[in-house]
Amino acid sequence: MRTLKYAILGLINKSPSTGYDIFKEFSDSLGNFWNAKHSQIYPELKKLVEEELIKYDVVITGEVLEKKVYIITEKGKEEFKSWLCKNEEIEPTPKDIFRLRMYFLKDIPKERLLELLENQLQQRLEKISHLIEKRNAFTEVPGFGENELGDYLVLEGAIMREETTVQWLEKCIELCNER
Amino acid sequence: MRTLKYAILGLINKSPSTGYDIFKEFSDSLGNFWNAKHSQIYPELKKLVEEELIKYDVVITGEVLEKKVYIITEKGKEEFKSWLCKNEEIEPTPKDIFRLRMYFLKDIPKERLLELLENQLQQRLEKISHLIEKRNAFTEVPGFGENELGDYLVLEGAIMREETTVQWLEKCIELCNER
DNA sequence: ACGTGCATGTAAAGCGTTACATGATTAC
DNA sequence: GTAATCATGTAACGCTTTACATGCACGT
Fold it and tell me: Which nucleotide is nearest to A20 (CA to C1')?
C-alpha cells in the first residue's frame, strides 16, 4: 500500500523538508495518526528520488554540515493528489493490547485490575491535557480553505478519541467495582 | 513483545481450541482489538508447543480428518497470568489512513472531499449497527466475576469508539461545508 | 568543555499480509 | 455433485522496530 510514501510526499508537498524535519513532524501533530522512525524515513526518501517523485538540494548548515532539502516534483504532485482522492474501505479496528487484557479480565485479581485501569486512566488524562494545550494554540476554528483546517480536524479527532477512551475506562472501573 | 503469543494463550486458556477455532475468534469479537491470519497462527502454535506452554491432542473428525486440539499447560497458565497483570505505557496512537488523508484535505477538491467523508460515515454507521446487534445478544449487563464481562466491556468499547468516529466525521462535514 | 539537538545513514530481527498448497466434511 | 466451511501448513514479500554507526551545530 505504500502509505508511508504518501505521508512523506504530502509533507514535502506542504513545504520542502529534510528527512529530519519529516521525522520531527511524525513526533508532533502527525503522530496522532501516523508515524515512522528515521530508519524507515531515509530509505523511503531515497526510493522516492529514484521514482522521480521528489528531488533535493544540498544545503550547508554552519561550516560543513550538509543537509538534503527535499522538494516535490510535478510527477510527485500528481501522484500524491491522485492517492489523496481515492476512496477506501474502512480499516479493520486497530490492535490494542490493553483491550486484549481487558478481554481476559476474569483472570486478573480484582485489586490489580483496578490498579491497571486507574493507571491507564491517568495516562490518558495526561495525554488529553497535552492535546488540549495544542488546541488552545488555535485562536479560532479555521474555516474551509484555510491552511490549518486539516491540522485542526485531526487534533480535534484525537481529543475526541481520547475522551471516549477515558469514558470507557471509567465504565470499566464502575462495572468492575460492582459486587 | 510477542502479543500474539499471549492472545492465543489466553484463548486456549479460556477453552481448548484448534488453530482454526482461534482463527475464527479473531474474525469475531476479538477482531475489535486483535487479529491474525491463519498463516501467523499455525507457526505461533508450533512455537508455543516447543516452549511447553501448550500441548495438543489429536482428534478425528468424520472418517480421517485429524485436528489438533490445543490445551494450556500449568507453565502456560503461569506465564499467561503474569503477562496479564503487567502494567503498561499507553501505546502510540494507532495509524489511520483516512485521518492522514484528512490532514492533507486542502489538496482535495471540495466536492470529492464531501463524497469521501459521506462514504466513511456510511461505512461506520453500518459497522455500528452490527456491533449493536451483538450487544443485543446480552440480555443484561454482566456483573463482576461473570464470564461474559470481558466480552461485554470490549464490545461496549468498540461501539463507543465507532460512535465517536461518526461524531468526528460529522464535525468534519460541517466544517467543510461552511461558507 | 559538554550536553542536547540536528543530521544521515545501514543491518538485523520481528511482525504481518498475500500467495501458494492441499485435502476432508457437511449441508443443500 | 458442488459449494461453503473446516482444517493445516509453508514461502515470499513488505512493513516496522531496535540496534549499530557517525559526526556537526549551538547554547551555556
Answer: C7
pLDDT one-digit tens code per residue, B12-71: 999 999 999 999 999 998 999 999 999 999 999 999 999 999 999 999 999 999 999 999
What is A130-174 written as a DSSP string?
Answer: HHHHHHHT-SS---TT-TTHHHHHHHHHHHHHHHHHHHHHHHHHH
A98, A120 contact by CB (below 8 A) = yes
Minimal C-alpha gap between A134 and chain B (Å)? 16
B27 class by beta-carbon count within 10 Å (0-12 exposed, 13-18 middle, 19+ buried) = exposed
Protein CA at B131 to nucleotide C1' at D2, angstroms? 34
The three three-digit cell numbers of residue B115, written as one number: 463524497
Indicate the pTM of the whole model: 0.96
Q: What is the pLDDT of residue A29?
A: 87
Grid cell 480421517 in the structure block, residue:
B64
- Please return the burial class of A4, using the count of CB atoms within 10 Å of its CB with bins 0-12, 13-18 and 19+: buried
Per-residue pLDDT, A179: 63
A66 CA: nearest nucleotide by C1': C7
d(CA A17, CA A2): 20
Residue of B95, B147, B167 to mutate when probing chain A, most A C-beta within 10 A: B95
Mode of pairing for the β-strands spanning A54-61 and A65-72 = antiparallel
Say yes or no for a CB contact (<8 Å) between A161 and B158.
Answer: no
pLDDT tens digits, one per residue of A32-70 = 999 999 999 999 999 999 999 999 999 999 999 999 999
Q: Is the pLDDT confidence value at B127 over 80? A: yes
Q: Chain B neighbours among A 81-120 (CB < 8 Å)?
A: 81, 84-85, 87-110, 112, 115-116, 119-120
Q: Which helix (H) or strand (E) holds A112?
A: helix A110-136
Residues of A (113-142) whose Cβ lies below 8 Å from B: 115-116, 119-120, 123-124, 127, 141
